Amino acid sequence: MFKLILKLAWNNAFLRLSRTLLVIIMIAVSMSMLLAIQGLFDGMAYNMSDKMLRSDSGEISIYHKDYRLNKIIANHVTDAKTIKAKLEQDSEVQAVVTRFSVDGLSATARKSSFANIIGINLEDEEKFGQFSDFLKKGTLDFKKRGALIGGELAKTLKVKVGSKLVFSTQDKNGDINSIALRIRGILRTANVKLDTSAIFIDAVRLDKFLGIDKNIATQIAIRTQSSTLQDKLKKDYPNLSVKNFLEINPMMQMMEDSMVIFNSMIFVIVMFVVFIGILGVMYVSILDRIREFGIMRGIGMKYSHIRLQIILEALFVGLMGYLVGALFGFSGLYYLENVGLDLSAYADAMESFGYETILYAEIKLSYFTNTFYAIFTASLLSVFLPLRKIKKMHPIDVIKADT
């Protein structure tokens, strides 16, 4: 009996081929667009967080207790190099760097702007986060009073590779000192804080300029995959501030939460459209065959068998739409993951918000499994109204009906 019902359901699902194909195409297009949006949003968030991890905080950063509230030279980590050496011996640590950062004023002959000068070691930064990937123009070196500058700050100061600028700030003794620099390279880190204000110079040169001990730092950044390392470091260094990535960058947490909400809203809207589409096809299809169902009930077929047939018809339509949508969606995501969506026409706006001009998508299995469950559920729900109509009608009345 089940084989007969299955065959009837399959044939009836495609009885009005043009109508059924229209719904399948609607489901496929809606699903593929949904997958593309989800993939792009997750790709944008991943790209931004990845570059912020590599260019700045890592998964964990260690600071002086008061540094993040009051960024002055006095609020530094003592014995930073010793702590770094100890961390490098820890099997849970993938990479670690120390940096010294101080705020001040950068100026050219025509422009000036508040800036943040950061002393780094290029070799350590390359191991930590492939620092060379951020270089957009020039060369990655500090030769001849060289400095690297964030792209947005370069625009503000109207400087280019080879330009000179002067950075002024208070040294260790509180005196105002200035240092002359020549731009060797322009960086794009997708980290708004760095792109709009950062000037990178050699750590040894910054130490001499500020008159500070080479063993101190304002930040110790750590790359790790361990979920327990932060608690361990808090116990080892109770007098220091040990923060994870989301604690340092709460905007990223807000962005991730906002994208989850937005993706959920888009998901509900698309699935509601799918539900209405399948409901419309099933309702019209059942009205077209109302006498057929009346005869089936009149000759003794159980209502449960008719119900099963109609449910299978809806599932066939929904699942066919899902398969076509999954094929189109995966193809689109694969293209966006490898080639990306080029928004170079909006480069200035994208870069000012910390996004790349080419957006790349993520591909996750959850996109397809969640959509499968949603379409399966929508298909089942879409038959309730048609089934209710059939159940309420008497077989004789159904056979006599002018439908």
Write the layout of secondary structure elements.
Elements: H1 2-13, H2 17-57, E1 60-64, H3 80-88, E2 93-107, E3 112-120, H4 122-129, E4 135-138, E5 146-150, H5 151-157, E6 164-170, E7 176-187, H6 192-197, E8 198-202, H7 203-210, E9 219-224, H8 229-236, E10 240-244, H9 245-248, H10 250-288, H11 290-298, H12 303-338, E11 341-342, H13 347-352, E12 358-359, H14 365-381, H15 384-392, H16 395-400
Helix pairs in contact: 1-12, 2-10, 2-12, 10-12, 10-14, 12-14
Poorly predicted sequence stretches spanning 5 or more consecutive residues: none
The helix/strand order is HHEHEEHEEHEEHEHEHEHHHHEHEHHH
What is the arithmetic mean of pLDDT?
A: 85
Number of domains: 2
Sheet-strand content, in percent, reads: 15-25%
Shape: elongated
Tell me the number of helical segments per DSSP (H or I, 4 or more residues long): 16
Cα-based radius of gyration, to the nearest Å: 31 Å
The N- and C-terminal alpha carbons lie at a distance of 27 Å
**Helix content percent band:** 55-70%
Q: Could you tell me the number of beta strands? A: 12
Strand order of the largest sheet: 2-3-8-5-7-6
Biggest beta sheet attributes: 6 strands, mixed, barrel
Structural class: alpha+beta
Can you walk through the features of this model?
With 403 residues, the protein is an alpha+beta fold. It folds into 2 domains: 2-52 and 252-400, no CATH class; 60-224, no CATH class. The protein is built from 16 helices and 12 strands. The protein has helices at 2-13, 17-57, 80-88, 122-129, 151-157, 192-197, 203-210, 229-236, 245-248, 250-288, 290-298, 303-338, 347-352, 365-381, 384-392, 395-400, and strands at residues 60-64, 93-107, 112-120, 135-138, 146-150, 164-170, 176-187, 198-202, 219-224, 240-244, 341-342, 358-359. A 6-stranded mixed beta barrel has the order 2-3-8-5-7-6, surrounded by 4 helices. Helix 10 (250-288) packs antiparallel against helix 12 and helix 10 runs parallel beside helix 14. The longest helix is centred in the N-terminal third of the chain and has 41 residues, at 17-57. It is elongated. The protein starts with a helix and ends with a helix.
